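Supplementary Note 3. Input sequence used for the single-chain structure prediction.
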Amino acid sequence: MEELNRLKTELERTKSELGILYEISNAMRTTLKLDEILYIILTGVTAHTGLGFNRAMLFLVNEKDRIIEGKMGIGPESGEEANAAWTKIEQEKMDLEDLINAFKNSNAVLESGFNRQVKSLKVSMYDKDENPLSLAVLEGMPLHLTGETIHHYHNSPVIRMLESNELVLIPLKAKDRVNGIIVADNFITNDPITKDDLRMLTMLANQAGLAIENSQLYEKTVDRAHSDYLTNLWNHGYFQYLLQTEIEKAKATKGQLSLITVDIDDFKIYNDTLGHQAGDKILKDLAQVLRNQSRKMDLVCRYGGEEFTIILPQTGKKEAYVIAERIRMDIQRYPFLNEEIFPNKMLTVSLGISTFPEDGLLPAELIASSDNCLYQAKNKGKNTTCCT
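The predicted structure, written as C-alpha cells, is reproduced below.
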C-alpha cells in the first residue's frame, strides 16, 4: 500500500511537471520576438504555476565579441516586494498566461531595478576559473552552487550582485551549441534547490535554447530584409515604417521627435572623377560615421543615393541641432579616401532638420520640412545645418 501511494504521488508530480513544460512550450511558440520569448522562459522559471524559483536571469552568448551578456532578469528586490507580488498573483488567481499577457501590456519588468542590473552584466566567455557563467558555457553542463562551493567565485560580478547562498546555472542549447544561460535562486524563501528542480530546469532549457535560436534567426532575416545592401543601414522602405511608428509613440506620450536629413555635398563630382566603386566606398564609410556618432536610441537610414536620414526619438529641435552640428563637424574631420577630389579638398555634408509636432504631424510633412531645410543649407554654401 505504501509503495502504491508513493507511485501515485510520483505520477501526480510527473503529470504536473509535464503540464508546466507543455504550457511554457506552447507560450514560446506564440511569438518570435526575443524579449517576449525571454520573458516567457523566465516567467516559467519563477511563477508559482511554473517552476517556482524566487528570481531568475537569462544571459546570451555573444560569440562575435566573446562575451556572455545579461539580457533579462525577473524577480523581487526584497522580501516585501516579493510578498506583495505573490499576494497579488494569489488574489487575482493569475496563471502563466495571465503573467505573460501582463508583460505585453506593461514595461514594468523591463524598467525594474533588477532587470537593469542584469542587463549591465557582461563577462568573458573564457574566464571559467573566476566566473561560473563561463564555466557553464564552456562545459555545457548544469552548475549547482551551494554554500560549500559558491565562495570559489566571490569575485564574479554575478555572484556579487545576487548575494545568494545557493543558485543554479543551466546552459541553453541549440544543436549542441550553448547559446545562453539561465541563473535561478531562492534568495527570499531560502528553499533548497533539489534534484527535481535541476531536472525540470534542464528540460525547460532544452526547449528554451531552440526557441531563442529561432527568434535570433528570424530577427536576422528581418534585419536583412529591411537593410540597405551597401551600407547595412535601414533602407528607404523601413525608414518610412520607423518614422510612422516613432510619430505614433510621440503622439501617445505627447513628446517630441526630430528628423535629420543628410546629403553629401558635390558627390557627383567625386563619382564622375573616380567612378561608382570609389563612390560606394565613400557611402559605406559615411554610413559607419553616422552610426558611430548617433545615439543608441537614434535610427540611421539610407534614404537613397547620397542622402541619409536620422530619426531622433524624444528629441526637440535645439537638441537635434546640436547633434546635427556635431555629426557635420565629425564628418568634416574624417579622413575619407581621395577626398581632395571635392571642391573644398574634403568631404562635407549639408543637413536639414524638422521636428514633430511643430513642423508636421505626418511622416510626409516632416520629410518635406527637413528636405526644405536641406535645400536652404545647400543654398547657403553647403557644409551647413539648417532648421525652421
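The longest helix spans residues 195-226. The chain has two domains: 2-225, 236-387.
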